[in-house]
Amino acid sequence: MRRITTRIATLAATALLALATGQSGQAGAAADAAYFNMRDITGHNFVIEITRPEVIKEAREIVANGDSKIVIGRLIMRAAGYNPTWDFHFNPDTVSFADGAPEVCDSTIPYVEDHLDEVGGPFLPGYYWCPWSGRLTAEVSAP
Question: Which of 56, 95, 124, 137 has the highest CB neighbour number within 10 Å of its CB?
Fold first, then answer.
């Protein structure tokens, strides 16, 4: 019974995240991408590529105003050239921001790296990651 309850909660959280991120429409071209540094409570940095113009604008406002929005998006399980320190990165077309997010998608940067083989199951279901302590610190140059 406990396993069924866990699975139902995981499916519900994944569906909620998909709705919260509002992933529709076409992504911007890679040439139109912008890059932002995110730092979490562990002091590690993580570069995020964003391709949708409205999300790029929102990210710039977050940096300019020092807002503490949570980054939400789906992970791709391989390193990206702009973020070579880590063996995972956000799918640039899925990045969004929120004031809150379910605990099931929260984790620090190094914890995700150390548990890559568990991502997508009960740990970060649906490959959604929303690091609660992650904060955008700056827009950074394209690679």
Answer: 124
